Amino acid sequence: MLNGAAVLLAFEQVGGATRILEISRDYALERKAFGRQIGGFQALKHKMADIYTRNELARVHAYYGAWALSSDAPELALAAGAARVAATTAYNFAAEEGIEIHGGIGFTWEMDCHLYYRRARYLAQVIGSEHAWRGQLADELVKEAA
């Protein structure tokens, strides 16, 4: 049951991380500093590229988990652990970087960054910590190698 919940929560986390990337991109294209859009600065491009990379990795793991869940595959525990760890990492990273991309306004009630940050922290603990899911993932990998 926990493995199924982990897969479903991974999709929610991937969706949240994707939305953070979208609002960060939109803000970076709208905000200007030193006479140009802040989205043109290389540092922000790198931040958004890192968010995108983690999001896509988490998305692939979530799809693998969904396949294992829907087909009652024996590797469900492995897929669920991988999906949960990748999605938790991606969502937390996106939430933290999204606040940084928004700068000082990212902490205010005017922007939704803080809501995504709190949701990321909440979902990271809801059915077990990331550490517990990493433990399950490691155990499954050891079983698979044996």
- The low-confidence parts are none
Structural class from helices and strands?
mainly alpha
Write the CATH homologous superfamily. Answer: Butyryl-CoA Dehydrogenase, subunit A, domain 3
Q: Do you know the CATH topology?
A: Butyryl-CoA Dehydrogenase, subunit A, domain 3
Number of helices: 5
Q: What's the story with the biggest beta sheet?
A: 2 strands, antiparallel
Mean pLDDT: 92
Compressed to H and E, one letter per element, the order equals HEEHHHH
CATH class wording: Mainly Alpha
Using the CA coordinates, give the radius of gyration.
17 Å
Fold blueprint:
Blueprint: H1 2-30, E1 32-33, E2 36-37, H2 42-70, H3 76-102, H4 113-125, H5 130-145
Antiparallel strand pairs: 1-2
Which terms would index this structure?
AcylCo_DH/oxidase_C; two-stranded antiparallel ribbon; flavoprotein; mainly alpha; Butyryl-CoA Dehydrogenase, subunit A, domain 3; 5 helices; acyl-CoA dehydrogenase activity; elongated; AcylCo_DH-like_C; 146 residues; oxidoreductase
Account of the 3D structure:
There is one protein chain. 78% of the residues lie in helices and 3% in strands. The chain has 146 residues and is mainly α. It has a single domain (2-145), classed as Up-down Bundle (Butyryl-CoA Dehydrogenase, subunit A, domain 3), CATH 1.20.140.10. A hairpin with a 2-residue loop joins strand 1 and strand 2. The longest helix has 29 residues, at 2-30. It is elongated. The protein starts with a helix and ends with a helix. InterPro entries: AcylCo_DH-like_C, AcylCo_DH/oxidase_C.
